[in-house]
Every structure is written in structure tokens, then in C-alpha cells.
Amino acid sequence: MKIYYIGIFKPLGTEKAIELTSVSDLSSFGYFERSSVGSFMKFFAETVVARTSAGQRQSVQQNKYMGHVYMRSEGVGAVILTDQEYQIRPAYGLLNKVLDEFISTYPPSQWSSITTAPNTSTFKMPSLDTYIKKYQDPSQADAIMRVQKELDETKIVLNKTIENVLKRGENLDSMVQKSETLGISSKIFYEQAKKTNSCCIIM
């Protein structure tokens, strides 16, 4: 079981979101793959969080990877990217914990008017580094923090593919080519990964 990425985002409409802070663990990928894989993780997270309504939780499957998303009514959302074996309860428990801590540390007045990606140190959360290490073991995570009762009573949209999340008429391939987040090498990597279906979150 593996957590690859934890990110906090502010959506801008229904097609774009900006990353406020994040942490990743790409140690399971080859050294020369990590930059491209990291770019696609961010792209995937931006795409899904922008299409998640306030108060909604959903899990999006892409090949052997899962993106778990929780959008708060305050206008900020969090994404955890894991493998398919990672259990859903601790994933959403961690999303709750991360968002509660972020909003407590940085109230909406500090980010509600932001329209461009901030400096990486603006909303620094050192605890994310701790969480991505500690919660690699979901059984330990679930013992440390009990998932709120609210989670059991809230419908979670499970096992959507990225195509189900996109709007009608949207195409992942064309979005990748138009993306300003992804560089030329990352776009080439996407095409290669799609053909080999082997190593990237976005296939």
C-alpha cells in the first residue's frame, strides 16, 4: 500500500484549480521518471479537484491508481493519490485531518482571493511530510485517528475513471496537450506511458 501525493487546492471555476501546498513520495519510481510522474500527479489532482463540488467526496480510479478528493464548503479541497490497495477509510480520515489543519492555520481570508499559484513557501505545512510517511501504513493511521461518524453518513462517489469526471466533450489527450502545467518532456512522457500502460497516473 502506498501514498504518492497529498495536495491542497483552491478551485478556480469548474475547469482549473491552483495548488496551495503539497508533498509527494516518488521513491518507488525510477530517478529519471520522477519529474514527469510528479507533473502528472499535479495535473491529475488539479483536474479532479476542479470538478468536485463543495461538500463532495469522490474517489477516481485511473488504471492501478486512486485519487481520493474532498472539497470543503469553505472553498478549498485536498487530494490524496494512492495505489488501489490503500484503504478508503484512512484515506478520507487523513483528508479530513489535513483540511482541518490547513483551514485552522490559514483561514479563508488568506487565500480566498488568490487567482494564481502562490510561492511554495506561502502556505507551508511541515506536517504533510510527517503524514505522508506515517500514513503509508493505513492500519496505523486508522488506529491513530478515527474517521469521523460524518464520513459513514456521507455518500462517496467511488471508482470513477478520469473520463467520468471530465465534462461532456472534454478529452484527456487534448487537455494534456493544452496544459500549461505540463512541459514538453512531460507531454512526451504521457504519450509513451499511455502506449506502454506501465508507470504513470495519467494513462
Automatic annotation (TrEMBL):
It is a lipid-anchor. Residues 143-203 form the V-SNARE coiled-coil homology domain. CDD domains: Longin. SMART domains: Longin (SM01270). One of its GO terms (cellular component) is Golgi apparatus. Keywords: Coiled coil, Lipoprotein, Membrane, Methylation, Palmitate, Prenylation. Pfam families: Longin, Synaptobrevin. SUPFAM superfamilies: SNARE fusion complex, SNARE-like. It is found in: Endomembrane system. GO terms for biological process: endoplasmic reticulum to Golgi vesicle-mediated transport. Residues 7-129 form the Longin domain. This is Palmitoyltransferase. It comes from Saccharomycopsis crataegensis.
